[in-house]
Design brief:
With about 80 residues, the chain is an alpha+beta fold. It has two helices and four strands. It starts with a strand and ends with a helix.
């Protein structure tokens, strides 16, 4: 996995923090970071919105929802099995 690493100020304490970012990870970008001073740590985590959250987001974005095709459902199932365990 290749990407970019650099040092920046921690958003929590202002101390020295490392950041790693990769756009070559599939199927989504990966970012992580760790503060060397206070220990704050973060990373990309994949999850699914619940139905209420999804409806709210669609309204905010003026998205007209459509039902998933069978092919899209199969793709989602394969994705979930790989990345949401």
């Amino acid at each position: 996995m290749s990407g970019i690493s650099y040092v920046l100020d921690c958003g929590r304490c202002g101390g020295e923090s490392t950041l790693y970012s990769s756009t070559e990870t599939k199927p989504f970008e990966y970012n992580s970071g760790d503060c060397l001073k206070c220990g704050f740590s973060y990373f990309t985590k994949a999850s699914l919105l619940n139905k209420k959250e999804l409806v709210k987001l669609r309204k905010q974005m003026s998205f007209k929802s459509k039902k998933l095709t069978n092919e899209e459902k199969n793709n989602c199932g394969e994705f979930d099995n790989l990345y949401l365990k």
